[in-house]
Specification:
alpha+beta; PPA1309-like
Length: about 190
């Protein structure tokens, strides 16, 4: 027997919960798509749009979607379609790129993928202060880990992250959570302001 009143939606089916679920699905799909291209890739940026709204605005999009995606979109108004952005503005680093992005209201969210080299905290603390020397040691350190981060945010406030390591490069070894990389989540969220 349900503890919610008959006229109230269950917490799992509220619009906020459906949006969060749709975002998690979209981030997993983006990460899997980027992973298929292999490692040593540039930053990639994807606009996230609600599929039903995209189909209403551009009916020809239906010809590009598989039947299962169309069925999922019909069943859930929060189903998201990712649209990779090409011709990104030139930028010296990820922070500068994200600061240069803005989105029209029709875009419900954003997903970004980026590769990074990470070290255990104790190894990172031992890096030299000189940036060039630190980079050289980072790239040759025996404990370094190459990771790919996929971060998605929605205008609703929902967030989702996926993290894959090169050492464990398998679809079933991707870590996931709402706030795995808080700084990057905040930077991606700022592109929607």
């Amino acid at each position: 027997m349900s503890s919610t009143a008959p006229d109230q939606p269950s917490p799992a089916r509220t619009p906020q919960a459906r949006a969060g679920h749709a975002l998690a699905d979209a981030v997993r799909e983006v990460e899997h798509h980027v992973a298929a291209a292999g490692w040593d890739a540039p930053v990639r940026v994807f606009a996230l749009v609600r599929t039903q709204a995209a189909l209403a605005a551009e009916p020809g999009l239906a010809d590009q979607l598989t039947p299962d995606v169309l069925a999922a979109a019909r069943a859930d108004d929060w189903h998201l379609t990712s649209v990779e952005q090409e011709g990104l503005p030139a930028a010296e680093d990820l922070e500068q790129l994200l600061a240069a992005l803005s989105w029209p209201d029709a875009v419900d969210g954003v997903a970004v993928t980026v590769e990074r080299v990470v070290l255990p905290p104790e190894a990172e603390e031992a890096l030299p202060a000189d940036p060039a020397e630190a980079l050289e040691q980072l790239l040759t350190h025996p404990q370094r880990q190459d990771v790919r981060l996929a971060v998605g945010v929605l205008r609703t406030g929902a967030t989702w992250c996926a993290l894959r390591t090169r050492a464990h490069d398998a679809d079933d070894a991707v870590a996931q959570g709402a706030d795995l990389v808080p700084g990057l989540v905040a930077a991606v969220r700022a592109t929607l302001d």
